[in-house]
Write a structure and sequence with these properties.
about 550 residues; alpha/beta; Rossmann fold; GMP Synthetase, Chain A, domain 3; nine-stranded mixed β-sheet; 20 strands; globular; binds xanthosine-5'-monophosphate
Amino acid sequence: MDIHTEKIIILDFGSQYTQLIARRVREAKVFCEIHPFDKGLDGLLPPFGVPAPRGAGRGGGEGFNPKGIILSGGPSSVYDKGAPTLPKKIFDMGIPILGICYGMQLTAKLLGGKVERSREREYGAAILEIDDEAGIFYGLDSGKIKFGEREGFLGAGLIDVWMSHGDKVVGLPPGFKATAKSENALNCAMADVSRKIYGVQFHPEVAHTPQGGKIINNFLFNICGCAPSWTMDAFIETAVADIRAKVGNGKVVCGISGGVDSAVAAVLVHKAIGDNLTCIFVDNGVLRKGEADKVYSTLTKSFKMNIRHVNASGRFLKKLKGVTDPERKRKTIGAEFVHVFESEARKIKGVSFLAQGTLYPDVIESVSHKGPSAMIKSHHNVGGLLKKMRMKLVEPLRELFKDEVRALGRALLMPDDIIDRQPFPGPGLAIRIIGEVTAGRCEILREADAIVLEEIKAAGLYNKIWQSFAVLLPIKTVGVMGDARTYENVIAVRAVNSTDGMTADWVRLPYEALARISTRIINEVRGVNRVVYDISSKPPSTIEWE
Ligand code: XMP
């Protein structure tokens, strides 16, 4: 079954929410891809006649015939000099289009409507009054709103929405009618039903628009005629077939880092080609407590995979000696990883493919931001290795978002304690030990970190928190234990919530949990006599301390 027959294209105009649109579409089990508004349209849209280029996550490289197009929001005004735009013929192809925010303003402008600059950006919650309960607004639970003092608005057809826009549409293009209004604007949504072109001024993709998912689903199912065929089982079937077709009887090697992505990628490749896959698990000495053993034993015992476990902690620590600069730590660990991996891979005869757990956010060409991925992946830069060993890449997760990788892991029957782990940076504890990394410091941090995680789990919070961990500070402070003065290390505890690592807020951990964490670390970890809690958000702070 080809799960890519139902595709939606999202053209990105730089909104911070573009990836959320993709998430909502995929939650509806419809496959979609994000493309920059100004690149590759010729290959994506059928009437332009050129087949899509191969690779780059386009579902096997065949022509990309979308069943619908979503135009994202963006920070520009349609009146800005050089404002992002589209060829007008996109609206004449008979493909349904939904413009969101900037996408709607651009649609209005290109099709002959009137868009006006607002003096101030409208930002925040608003109540929408729906005038046409068909089309994208079909079947919503109206009236489920937080009624303000806006009596004139009480009645059926009201929903909560999230606004964030500067311009507004003051004159509709010919053929369109207004389908919703708010207190501030008459044309909050518009539709040309005969051409299947829709626009919404608000953001249906964000959580603050509680019925936004339904609005997007209406577009996908009722207007584009998509079927919900993007399921994990269907994905596995296709991915396994793709891997087999690409690799044939060739041998594949896969680096296991201890993280979720590489483990899931390895299990998927193993399902496709069995023992022709060899995994190399490089223990770099800066993993969390028990992590290496857990991943290794699950993959070898439950999945019967072929894994070479290389304990390289000594080598890594030697290279890290005297290194205090955070970026140098990253580069040192990255280079050493490639070294160890390469020498191990060379021992396996006849390997021609390298499998990697690259995710979709790493390959999206985003107008707005590159995401943390550009930096994150630098430490696993295996480009040189591929060239030297003449290997080809296999990246079975490159169409998936992080939570889809977790769903895939579950569908592959991997245990929750591997799948649901919080993200962990490649350079590991090394960037949580401020200053020089030594074996002794790693030991202290590993123990303290394990206590933080145990207590967060005991409080039932682990799966609700994006990341929680301990940091070892390079200072000593005075304490008193029994009758004696101590002069020991400080541990900082960090817990943050985030959706993508780009922004984060510190978690208001219950005092009881903080108290247990502090008491246990000071009592149980030798060399620590003080624990502090980090109450900084990102920005301006980062999640990691280095
Ligand atoms: P920051 O500290 O930049 O972190 O707010 C954002 C997210 O990225 C992770 N991170 C890394 N992951 N290698 C990685 O694999 C790195 O060098 C790296 N630095 C930060 C961090 O844990 C958080 O999830």
